[in-house]
Amino acid sequence: MLAYILRRILASIPVMIVVALFIFLLLRLTPGDPAAIIAGDMATPAQLAEIRRNLGLDQPLLTQFVTWSGQLLTGDFGQSLISRTPVLTLIGQRLEPTLSLAIVSMIMTLILSIPMGVLAAWRHRSLTDSAVMAISVLGFSIPIFVTGYILIQVFAIDLKLFPVQGFTSISEGIGPFLQRIFLPALALATIYIALIARMTRAAMLNVLGEDYIRTARAKGLSERIVLFRHALRNAAVPILTVIGTGFALMISGVVVTESVFNVPGLGRLTVDAILARDYPVIQALILLTSGIYVAVNLLIDVSYAFMDPRIRY
Amino acid sequence: MAEHPSTAATGPGAKPVVRRNFLPRIGVRGLGLAAWIAAFALALVVLMALFAPLLSPYDPIAMNPMERLADWSLAHPFGTDAYGRDVFSRTLYGARTSLIVGLGAALVAVLIGLPLGLLSGFFRTLDAILMRIMDGLMAIPAILLAIAIVALVGSSLWTVLVAITIPEIPRVVRLVRSVVLSAREEPYVEAAITVGSSLPKIMWKHLAPNTVAPLIVQATYVCASAILTEAILSFLGAGIGTETPSWGNIMSEGRIYFQLKPSLIFWPGLFLSITILAINILGDTARDALDPKLGKRRQD
Amino acid sequence: MSFIAKASAFHPRHLLRATLLASTLLGAGLAASPLQAQEIRAVMHSGIRVLDPVITTAHITRNHGYMIYDTLLGMDENLEPQPQMADWQVSDDGLTYTFTLRDGLVFHDGAPVTAADAVASLKRWGERDGGAQMMFRSIESLEATGDKTFELKLSEPFSTVLQLLAKPSGLPTFIMPARVAETPSSESITDYTGSGPFVFDESQFEPGVRAVYTKNEAYVPRDEPPSWTAGGKVVNVDQVTWVVMPDAMTAVNAVGSGEIDFMEQTPYDLLPLLEANPELTVEVLSPLGYQTMARLNWLNPPFDKVEIRRAAMAALGQDPILAALVGNPQYQEKCGSMYGCGTPLATDAGSELIMNGPQPEEAKRMLEEAGYDGTPIVLMQPTDVPSIAPQPVVAAQLLRQAGFTVDLQPMDWQTLVTRRASQAPVSEGGWNMFFTNWIIPEVWSPINNPMLNGGGKEGAWFGWPDDPKLDEMRANFAAAESEEERKTIAADIQAHAYEVVNYIPVGEYKIPSALSNKLTGMLEMPVPVFWAVEKAE
Amino acid sequence: MAGDTRNGTPQAAPDGAPAHTLVISDLVVETRGREPRRILDGVSLHVAPGETVCLVGESGSGKSVSSLATMGLLPKDALTVRSGVIEVEGEDVLSASPKRLRQLRATRMSMIFQEPMTALNPVLSIEKQLDEVLDAHSAATGTERRKRIRDILELVRLPDIERMCRSFPHQLSGGQRQRVMIAMALILEPKLLIADEPTTALDVTTQKAILELVADIQKRLGTSVLFITHDMGVVADIADRVYVMRHGRIVEDGPIGSILREPKKDYTRDLLASVPALSPRPARPATSAEIVLQTSQLTMVYGRPSFFRKGEGTVAAKDIDLVLKRGRTLGIVGESGSGKSTVARCVMRLLDPTGGSIRLRNREIADVSRRALRPHRKRMQMIFQDPNRSLNPRLTVGESIIEGPINYGVDPDSARNKARSLLETVGLPADAIDRHPHQFSGGQRQRIAIARALALEPDLLVADEAVSALDVSVQAQVLDLLDDLQARLGVALLFITHDLRVAAQICDEVAVMQKGRIVECGPTGEVLGNPAEAYTRQLIDAAPGRFWDFPNFRPLAGAHEPSRQDVMVEPAR
C-alpha cells in the first residue's frame, strides 16, 4: 500500500510538470500586462516599461520559467505582482472560506444525495425514483448563479433567515459560521447532489442485480441491511470515483458561488488574479488546485482499498 | 486474477450472457414519457434555433437605448434589455449560440477524443505519454482554463467553444480508452486477430463501434455541461461578446436586474434549463437503454 | 414577491423544510448580525490591490491614500488651494514658493513629519504625475530649508503650482516618510506609514477581500471646518472597513439588509430597490461626476485621416450612449466641455459636431467625401468593467448606421489595456478605438487632461496624436498669467482638439452612493473620505 | 395438463405431518409487461423430508425460476407468479407477508447458488456474513453466535477456521466459498435446502467434494434437498427422485433408477443419449505422418520482475511438449488454472510465450514478429469458448466469416460464395449469411464460429473449451460436427477442455495438465483407461456419473451400481 502511494506520488510529478508548464506558457502568451494594472490609466508607455523591467517581466520566457520553478523547489511561491503580498500569505488568507464552503457543501451533499440515490435505486422505476431523478437532473440544469440568486431572494431577502452574503470564520462560533455558510454551501451542493445522487442510483442499480444481494435476501435480512450494508458498500467505488472527478466540478462551482455570496475564498482570488494577470498568484493557485485534485483522487483511490478488500495495491 | 477465463461460464446451465452491444436500438416503445417530452422540447429548441431569423420580430443586436428595460408588451413579448434590445429575439438567436456551443463541444470532444482514446487503448508507450498529458489537463480546473483561454484569444463564439471543449477532451479520451481496454479482451477481437486482420481494421471495425453507446451518453453530458459552462463564463465576464447573443450572456447581462426585471434572466434561464434538462433526460434514457454497466466502469 | 412560489416549485419540499429547521437551530432571524460599534463597513467601487498611491492613478488607491496619508495642500469646494499640512508664501516674482509645515504632524510610527519627508515625497510624485512632470521641468530646485520649511524655486513662470499641489485627484500630494519616498517610482512601496487620519491595519488586509483602517488617535486635525480635502479631518469612528464585493447585486442586497453601511457606487438600474428602503439614503456625493470618452487611434487607418475621425464624431451622439450607460436623466448630462461642465475652464468651444449627434446622414456624407474604403474599425469592448462595457456596443451600432464597418471585439479590461498600448497595425494586434472614463478633476485643465498631449508616438497618451500645435498651446496655458488668459487658451485648445478630433467626450454622469441612515455628515466631494462622518449606535 | 406429472409418490413419507417439506402445485410464472410470456406453465413437484430431489433441464427450462419462486426471490420488476401454490412445511409462502417471508428464509428454507464467486458479498468478512444470519433470526448472544459460526464452519470441513472467519470471499478458493455458502444456508438448520447448480462453476474434484459434503450434512441434519442441475452425471450420483423440465413444464418425473433405465418421454431419452460417457473413443488409424504442430519447452511466465515488482512471476505453463499430426485430435485436459488455455493462446500467438518453440508445419513461430506471423495466421484458426462473445454482435454472420479471406486477398464476392457453402457445411442455411449473431442460438453461433475458422482453410484448429458453454444436446451435435469436418478436411485439432468425458469422445491423444505442466500424455484410451498418474486417476474418479452408460440406459459394463451411500463413504478431499 505504502509503495503504491509512493508510486502514485511519483507518477503525479510528470502530471504536475505538465500542468506547470502548460499554465506558465498559457499565461505568458496571454495578452495582458500586470504593469498596466499597477500603473493605472494615466501611465505612459515608458512608465509601463519601467515597471515591467522592475517586475522581471522583460526577461525571456525560459529565464522566467527557470527562475520560477527554481523558487518553487525551495518552497517560494513568490509574491503578488500587484499587492506585493507573498502568494502563500494570500492563499493562507483565502483557504479557510473555500475549505469551509467545500467541506460543508460536501457534507450536505453526502447527507442528501446518497439516501436519495439509494431510495431511487431501491424503488427503481417508481414514482419516487422519477421524483428523485427529476430533482437531481433539475439541479444539474440550472446555472449555479441562478440557484444562488434564488436562494438569496427567498431565504435571505424574503424570509430573512440567513444573511445575504459574506463569510464568518468558524473561530467566531459555530452558529454564526453555519448561518453564513449555509446558503452558499447549499447552492454549491445542488450540482454535486445531482451528480452523486445519479451516480449512487446507477451504482446501486448495478449492485442490486448482483448475486450476493439475492443471497442476502435469501438469508432473510431486512431491506435496510440489504441496502446499506450489502449494496451500498459495494456501490462505493464508483460513487467515490465520481466524488473525485466531481471535485473538478466543485472547483468551478466554488468560483461562481464565492462571487454570488461574496465569500472571500480561493475561487475569487483566482479569477481576480487572472483578470489582473497576477502571474505568480495564478500559477501558484492553479498548481495548488491541480495538486489538490491529484491528491484528492489519490486519496479516493486509496480509499477504494478500505471500501473493497479485493482492491490491494 | 487467479481464475482463468475458461471457467467463467461452463456448462449449459450457465445463464446466457446478455450483451447489449448493438448500436443504439432504442425502440420507440422503450422511451418513457419523460424521454418523449424531452425529445419534443429539444426538437422545439432546435427548430427555434434554425428558424430564429424567421421567428424573431427584431434584429437581436439592434438597440434602442430610449426603450431600455421595457416590460412585457405585444411588441416585446419578453421585454427589452438594458440596451433596449428585444429579449425575445435575443433568446431565439441565443438558442443558436447555445446549441452550437453544446453540440459543437460534444462533437469536437468526440472527434478528437475518439482517435486519441483508441490509440491510447492500444499502444502502451503512447498511452503512458498521452495519459500524463490528459491527467495534467484534467487536473487543471476547467473553468479557470477556459477563462485563461478566452483571455488569450479573445472572446468570440469560437474561442469560447474551444475553451469549453479542451477540458472535456481528457474525459472522452479516458472513456474511449477504458472501453477499448475492456473490449480488446473480448474474444471476437482475438478472433479478428487470428483471422489476420490489421490493427487499424480491428480498431475501426471491432473496437470503435463499442465506444458508440458510451460516447453518445458522454456526448449528451458534454453538451449539457458546455451550455452551462458558457453561461458561467459569461457570468464571470469571459463569455461570448454581446453581439452574439447566447442564453448565457443574456442572463449574465440581465443578472443585475434580477429583482427588478426577472424576465431578463427568467426567459433565457427557462430555455437553458429546459434544454439541459431535455439533453440530460435523453442522456439518461440512452444510458439506461444502451449500457447498464456504464456507471460501474471507473473513469480511469 | 412571486419568487417564493417559483422558487419552492424549483426545490423539493424537504429542502425547504431542512432549511427552515436548520435556520431555527442556528437561532437565525437576525439577518444582520450586530456590527461592532463605530465601525463603518463600506463597499468601494473596486477592491484595493495596489497600495502605492504614487505608482498608480487607480482611484481606489487614491482613496486609500486619503485614509492613511495627509496631503501637503488641500482644495476646498470652491476649487481653491488651501493649507492642509503646510501653509505657503509666494515670492513677488512668483518663482519661489516657501512651505511651512504645521505643528503636531506625526507619522503613525511616532516620528514627526519633517520638511525632508515632504520634499522626498514631492519628488517621487513629480516623477509620476503628468501635470507634475510638466511642472518639474520648470523647477530649478526643491529643497528643505529647515525642519519644518522647504522651498520650491521655479526657473520660469508656471501658473498652476498650487493647483497641482492641491488637486484632489489624479495623484494628490500624499506625504510619506522620506525612507519610503526614496523607493524608485517604478517600484511599489512596501511600508505603509503615513500621517493621515487613519492607520492601515496591515494584518487584516486581504487583497480582494477587505482593507481595514483604524482611527489614528495621534492625528491633530486643523481647526477649520472640513471642505473637500481642506479643513480639519476629524474622525468620529473607530474603524472603517472596506469590503470587496465583486457582484453588484450582492452588494446591493447587503446594503439593503444593513450588512453594509456605505456603497460608493450603486448601479443605476438598481436604484429603485435602494430608494424604496426607508433605512437608506441615496445621494450623489461627488458633485463633479465623470466624463466618458472615446479615443481614436491616429496611427492606424482609417482614423489616421482627420476627415474620417470627424465623420466618426458625427456618427456618435451623447444621448444614446448615456442612455445605455446610465439611463436615468437625474444622473446623466450632455456636456461638450472637455474640461467637464461646471468647472472653472468649462467651455463648449468646438463641440457642435458631437453635441448635435448622432447625425448618421451627415456622417455618411463626410465618409464619402473622405473616401472611406470600408476598412473595418476594431472597437475594443471590456466586458468585465460595467462602466465601460455599454459605450462600445452603442457606438458600434451608431458607427454602422453611418456606414462604418465595425469589428466589435469583446475582451477583458486587462487585455484592453495591454492592447491599447500597441502601436502596431490592426493586423498585428493593433486597434482603432476604445472608450474610458475619467473623474472630472482628472481632465479639468489642459495640464492634467491626459488626452490633451500632442507628443505623438513617444509622448502622447494611447492613440498617439502627433499634434505639435496642441503642445504649444498647452505650454502657453501653463505660462499664462491670469485666469482670463487661461480660460481663453483653454477654449482655444478645446476648439483645436475637437477640430482634429483628439478625443470624443460622449457625456457626463454622476454616480449615486447608498448610505445607511445611521451615517451622518458624509462629506460631499469628489473623493469619498471617512472623516467628519458619524455613525449612530 | 400438468396433472400427469404429479404421479410420483413420496418414497419415504414418515409418519406424521407434514408429509412433504416442499410442495409446489400448478405454479404459473409469467413475465411482467403488456405481453406476458409464460416462464413456468403449471409446474408441480414435491420434496419429502430427508429426500434429495433433482430438477434437471437445459438452459431456459425454468428450473431456476421454480426455486427462486419458492424463496420469494423472483425479480419483482420482471417476473410474477400468476397462479399456483407453494408450501414449505405446510405454510403457504406465496401469500406470506414480506416480513413472514424474511422469517422463513434461512430458518425453514435456504438456498445456495451457482456462482460462489458472486454469491458472497465481496466486501464483508466471512464471519460477518454468517453472523448476520444469526443476528436477523435468533436472539443468541455474541458468544453463542461465535460458537455457532465456528461449529458450522467445522461441519462444512473448512480448514483453519479462525483465519476463515477473518477472510474475505476473494481470499478463498471456489470450493471453500461454496462451503461457506453451504454453512450460511444451514447455520439455522432449515428443513429445506435448495441448491441451484451449486457445483457447475467448480472443477470436477471440487464438485465431487461438495456433493459429498451436501449428502453428508443432509444425512446428519435430515434436510430435504431440491437440487437443480443440468448435469445428468450429477443427477445419477445424488438423486433420490428426478424431475425433468423443459420449456417451463415438468416433462417427466420418477425415482432415479426408473428415469435412467426406462425414460418414458422422448425428451428425456434424447437428454440421456447426448450425455458423453467417460469411455474413450475407439482408436483411429493415423492417416498422415505430417506434423502440423510441434511445441517444445513452451513456457509462459506472467508478471516477470520489474522495477516496481519483485518476485518470480507466475508460471502459467512450463516445458510443454506437444506433437499434433494432420487429421488427428489432441486434447489438453485439466482443471481451472492448469494452464491449458495459456498453451492454446500461446500456440495461436495471442500471447507471446516467454520461452520454448512452436513449430507450425515446421516453421518456427514462437518468436517471430507480428508482421512476419501474418502469413502463418491463416494456417491456424481458433474456436473460442463463448460463442456469444466470439462473434462481433454488430457484424452480420457473412461479414464475420469473410473477414479473414478478405484479409488474405480473396475478393469479397467469391468470399461470400465460399461463406454460403461453409454455412451449409456446418449445418446452417446459406441465407444465414445476412443475419446477425443474436438471431441464432448458442449452438448455431458456435457453428458460425467454426465456419469462420474454416474459411481460411487452416491446417490447425484450436478449440478452447469450444463446447463448454453449450447444453449437452447441442454439445453432442457440435462434437459430431467437428469430428465430421476433421474426417472430410483432414484438419488437425487441438482440443482444450476441462471435461474428461468430452475429451474421451473426441480426442485421439490426451495431455493432462496440472499447475502449468503436462503430467501425463498419450493415446486417449491409455490415459483414461489406464492412467499412470495419480492426478489423472483423481480426475477420472471425480467425473460425475462415471459408472453410468447414459446413452444405453444402463450401468457401465464392469462398474457397480452407483448409489448415494457409495458417494458418501468416500473421504473428503
From TrEMBL, chain A:
One of its GO terms (biological process) is transmembrane transport. InterPro entries: BPD_transp_1_N, MetI-like, MetI-like_sf. The keyword Nucleotide-binding does not apply. It is a multi-pass membrane protein. It is found in: Cell membrane. The chain crosses the membrane at residues 9-27, 99-122, 134-157, 177-197, 237-261, 281-307. The keyword Amino-acid biosynthesis does not apply. Residues 95-300 form the ABC transmembrane type-1 domain. GO terms for cellular component: plasma membrane. Keywords: Cell membrane, Membrane, Transmembrane, Transmembrane helix, Transport. PANTHER family: DIPEPTIDE TRANSPORT SYSTEM PERMEASE PROTEIN DPPB-RELATED (PTHR43163), PEPTIDE ABC TRANSPORTER PERMEASE PROTEIN (PTHR43163:SF3). Belongs to the binding-protein-dependent transport system permease family. This is ABC transporter permease. The lineage of its organism: Bacteria, Pseudomonadati, Pseudomonadota, Alphaproteobacteria, Hyphomicrobiales.
Automatic annotation (TrEMBL), chain B:
Keywords: Cell membrane, Membrane, Transmembrane, Transmembrane helix, Transport. It comes from the Bacteria. It is a multi-pass membrane protein. Residues 95-283 form the ABC transmembrane type-1 domain. It is found in: Cell membrane. SUPFAM superfamilies: MetI-like. GO terms for biological process: transmembrane transport. It holds the Pfam family OppC_N. GO terms for cellular component: plasma membrane. The chain crosses the membrane at residues 33-56, 99-123, 143-166, 264-283. Belongs to the binding-protein-dependent transport system permease family. This is ABC transporter permease.
TrEMBL record, chain C:
SUPFAM superfamilies: Periplasmic binding protein-like II. GO terms for biological process: peptide transport. Keywords: Signal. Residues 1-37 form the signal peptide. One of its GO terms (molecular function) is peptide transmembrane transporter activity. Residues 81-445 form the Solute-binding protein family domain. Its main location: periplasm. It is found in: Periplasm. This is ABC transporter substrate-binding protein.
Automatic annotation (TrEMBL), chain D:
It is a peripheral membrane protein. The keyword Transmembrane helix does not apply. This is ABC transporter ATP-binding protein. Residues 22-272, 293-540 form the ABC transporter domain. Keywords: ATP-binding, Cell membrane, Membrane, Nucleotide-binding, Transport. It comes from the Bacteria. GO terms for molecular function: ATP binding; ATP hydrolysis activity. SMART domains: AAA (SM00382). GO terms for cellular component: plasma membrane. Belongs to the ABC transporter superfamily. GO terms for biological process: peptide transport; transmembrane transport. Coiled coil: none annotated. It is found in: Cell inner membrane. Pfam families: ABC_tran, oligo_HPY.
